[in-house]
Write a structure and sequence with these properties.
With about 130 residues, this protein is of the alpha/beta class. Helices cover about 25% and strands about 30% of the residues. It has helices spanning about 1-20, 40-50, and strands at about 25-30, 55-60, 65-70, 75, 80-85, 90-95, 110-115, 115-120, 125. A 4-stranded parallel beta sheet has the order 1-2-5-8, covered by helices on one side. The longest helix has 18 residues, at about 1-20. The radius of gyration is 19 Å and the shape is elongated.
Length: about 130
């Protein structure tokens, strides 16, 4: 009987330990009118600080937030970009850059997977922002 109780206690502790795997959450701010608040600019600033995407990094978008993107982010082999939101779906819009021969053309892609992975949970992506 004591062996079963000890086994049950050990099983519960191992189960709880499996949920304690930490995720490093970085909250991304919605677009606020500055170039630093563009979605990929925020991700690039984080990856520059850590020389790549930390293995446990999760980018949390604010509920109902509006995120603009003006460039493509390449996800290299061995890396995973995780975007997540709770509550109302935030929207990521591809936003025209205002440069080049066609200034109203937004970037063609949000992410390009070059052997890497992309996980998105509860997020809407629109191909073009029309004010």
């Amino acid at each position: 009987m004591i062996c079963k109780k000890n086994f049950s206690l050990l099983f519960i502790l191992l189960l709880l330990a499996s949920y304690t795997y930490g995720q490093s959450i970085r909250v991304l701010v919605p677009y606020d009118g500055t170039a630093a608040s563009y979605l990929v600019a925020q991700i690039k600033a984080d990856t520059a600080q850590y020389h790549g995407i930390p293995a446990d990094r999760v980018y949390m978008l604010q509920s109902g937030g509006l995120y603009l993107n003006t460039e493509i982010f390449n996800v290299m082999a061995g890396q995973t970009v995780r975007l997540k939101a709770n509550g109302d779906m935030p929207i990521i819009y591809q936003y025209p850059t205002g440069t080049g021969s066609n200034p109203q053309r937004p970037p063609g892609n949000l992410f390009v997977l070059q052997g890497g992975n992309l996980e998105m949970t509860n997020i809407a992506v629109s191909g073009y922002f029309e004010p």
